[in-house]
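Repro:
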Amino acid sequence: MSRRRTPLLLAAALLSVGLAGCSAAAPTVRPAAPPEPPRATVPAPRVPAGTAPAKPFAVGVRQLKLNRDGSRPLPVTLWYPARGEAGGAAERGATVAAGRFPVVMFSHGLSGRPDDYRELLTRWAAAGFVVAAPTFPHTTRGADGNVLDVLNQPADVSYALDKVLALDGKAGDPLRGRLATDRVAAAGHSAGGVTTIGLFTAGRDKRLDAGVVFAGTALGVGTAFAGAAAPQLFVHGEADEVVDYAAGKAVYDAVPWPKAMLSLPKGDHGRALLTDGTALRVISDTTAEFLRWTLYGDEAARKRLPQEAARNDIATLDDHL
């Protein structure tokens, strides 16, 4: 066995223990915290200063049928800003709103599906983002549940991003001319959080300008953050029964770029992401302000972010943005 393969197999074995069930109780993950890295001096975001849309949009939804290498089916759910009255349910095939919108790639948790997170993701779309959420072939609900396949998912996301961004130039596609292809973020929950971290470490996708990690850990993907500075927002419940809060905090501490961590003292593994409620409103509004700042360059959104995080006294914000 090669020396390079041995650490990979060890990481995969640890991953299988640590993420056994994103949607239910499982052994907690408690890695040793790495030393605090030097504070980043690179300003963020990378995009030019701008202004995010001031009013919410209606939301449309559609599906893309993708398959990486012919053996990894990756259906992608797209939520996007649409014409019409804001506030209703997402409308399938609705006409895309006028403008150019940044893209957010979202990765679901183990035994999850993109639609499980529609309350959160449609709020992002209403705020002016095209949200693309792949359904992974082995970790979605009803699949074989092979948790080791999480290590293949960063490449899945990059492949799906290729195809999503290509729609901006595809004749006849509803999103033609509607994507800000140079403004992209990645986000994900639990196993999807591992996937997201991997997109900034071993599987660094240079197109990504920012990341949002919900209840994530670095098992299998490491903390060797690489490439240009990309601000990161971590969201983690301190009572997380699956991925211990300390595991998420250890990854956060290792980020060398502008960063913040939204901590929920009474928060669990992330059920607040799945249903409407006070916690989801705080999380969705805080993350939306982060995305407005990092992808639209909206400095006013950056200034509002601490206020949103403090609303209703259910979370605290460690802010190094």
